[in-house]
Specification:
The protein is built from 9 helices and 20 strands. The mean pLDDT is 94.
Amino acid sequence: MIWEEHASLAPYNTFGIDAKAERLVHLETEACVADYRIHPKGYAQQTLLISGGSNMLLCADVPGTTARIAWTGQHIVRETDDHVFVQVAAGENWHDTVRYTVEQDWGGLQNLSLIPGLVGAAPVQNIGAYGVELADSFDSLRFFSWETGEIQTLSHAECAFGYRDSIFKGPLKDKGVILSVIFRLTKHSHVLKTSYGAIQDELAARGQEASVRSISDAVIAIRQSKLPDPKVLGNSGSFFKNPALPAEVVAALAKSNPTLPQYPQGDGSVKVAAGWLIEQAGWKGKRIGQVGMHAHQALVLVNYGGATGPELWAHAQRVQDSVKEQFGIHLEPEVNLIG
């Protein structure tokens, strides 16, 4: 473990917010997690556990101890004729992991290319993009309990995945830490999803057939054309969830808004595009001081440099209020507010 006092968290959150941690500990191995649990200034004084920092907005300095997930590693745990099961440590970079699987021509994660963050946080949010969710390729994970110090294996069913949701945002919230994740990836007869977003158009423009690699490359190109690089412009990707609404509500809304993007769900509800709602409400590219919604993707809240967490959250609330007034829809943040 590496300990720091009064450490800036700017390098560890993609908004680039310069909040201070009273104490920051870097957990570099799984063994560190067990030691940290019993350290007198470790878990007993923990206020915040951070992964890649891509799904949080720091609105204040953090008292007590902040722990950072930093252990890495990956290996194949088993194979069948059709699938390979790969275990990946929580501290591995998500996009690097996706590209590794793509290079092996293993299908499942390619639509999730270029999403910021680390592997351990991905199941918490059940990250998703371009018609695919983490849950689609998830096998199981190892979970360390803060209360008992024991490690348990949780299955797909036990993780209770939903839209940007899981058991780790409910009953197991703050109860422990994910150590590693096992993905079930296809080796043959790939089921390729290209109908969501602009993937088909991008493949056609490239003159390419759909494959694990070409879909990943297309998603990367699309995301780079629309989304700002957090290393250049502070952001956390999509700030709001796409609201899932009753079908009759969406049908009524579409009568007066015929261009409304709609995505029917298996449970009978219909998702509508939060970015479209924000754009129609006039916020796309609109900047107030050092904050704003991005010019190429209205769903992305941006720190243009030097903005504080409260300033960013105030802007998000202005957007929420405006969309609610115009469409009667409440936008729920994807991002966790800290402080």
